[in-house]
Each structure stands twice: as C-alpha cells, then as structure tokens.
Amino acid sequence: MSFLSSALVLAIPALMACLALYGIGRVAERRRRLTTLWRTGLTAQGRCLRAYATSRGGDGGPAVLHHVYEYRTRDGRPVRFEETGSPASVMAGDTLTVRYLPDQPEQATALQPDNSGMLRAAAASMAVLTALLAVIVCFLAVYVAVFM
C-alpha cells in the first residue's frame, strides 16, 4: 500500500474522531452553560416573540423547534435571543422566566437544565458520539497493527 493511500485511510477516520470529540465538547458545554445560568444567573421576566420549526435535511426529517425571546436586564436594556429545545407548549406572546449572567446577557436561557427531553437528547448525543469515537479508535488501532 502506498504512503498516500495509507495517509488517506488514516486521515479520514482521524478527522471523523476530531469531529466526534468536538460534538461531545459542544454537548457538554451547552449542558454546563445551562446549569451555570440556572445556579448563578439573574432572573428576568421574558416574553416569547416568535416560535417556529425547521426541519433538518429538508426531506421531512425531524423538526427542530426555535423560540425567539426578549427580556430586559436589571439596568433596563432590552435583549433578544433565540433558543432551540424549548418546550412545544411555549407560544408567541407567552411570558416566562429567563436566566442570564450580567456580563453575558445575550447568552440567556429559558430552558431548565432538568428538562427531561433535553437531558435525554444530550445523553443520546453523547452516547452516539462516544460510540463513534470508539469505533474509529478501534479501526485505527487495527489498521496500524496490520498495515504498518
């Protein structure tokens, strides 16, 4: 096997492993951010301005629910933010509690970290990405042992 083909065979799974690690990091970071916001964030009365759904892939795949919220910080500044994963029961015009950090008001959330749907989705994402990473590492180990 030539050097170029060996490099390609190793580079593609390595790139996939990097993407899987990036995905795991994103899921963990989102979970950590929400937990921090609900433990130490300030509260404000917010309002849902808009709720809409988009589908992934455009072929009728699962819909992703988006909400656009607005609230005022303690100093009276209006802040808008968009969030996915909010409950389908939240409609435009609804009021709800928003949590935010004073130094990052645009990073607010209306999601509760113990939202069971979000927790299940995060756990499923982590499991799939971890399994993918394990398969890639095993493939690389076998390939190196056999061909190198």
Element order: H for helix, E for strand: HEEEEEH
Overall strand count: 5
Unreliable stretches (pLDDT < 50, length at least 5) are none
- Biggest sheet character: 5 strands, antiparallel
Descriptors:
single chain, 148 residues, alpha+beta, 5 strands, 47% helix
Please write out the topology.
Elements: H1 3-40, E1 42-55, E2 63-72, E3 78-84, E4 95-101, E5 104-109, H2 116-147
Antiparallel strand pairs: 1-2, 1-4, 2-3, 4-5
Helix pairs in contact: 1-2
Structural write-up:
Helix content is 47%, strand content 30%. It has 2 helices and 5 strands. The chain has helices spanning 3-40, 116-147, and strands spanning 42-55, 63-72, 78-84, 95-101, 104-109. Helix 1 (3-40) runs antiparallel to helix 2 (116-147). The longest helix has 38 residues, at 3-40. It is elongated. The model has no long low-confidence stretch (mean pLDDT 83).
Summarize the structure.
By secondary structure, the chain is an alpha+beta fold. Helices cover 47% and strands 30% of the residues. It is elongated, with a radius of gyration of 21 Å.
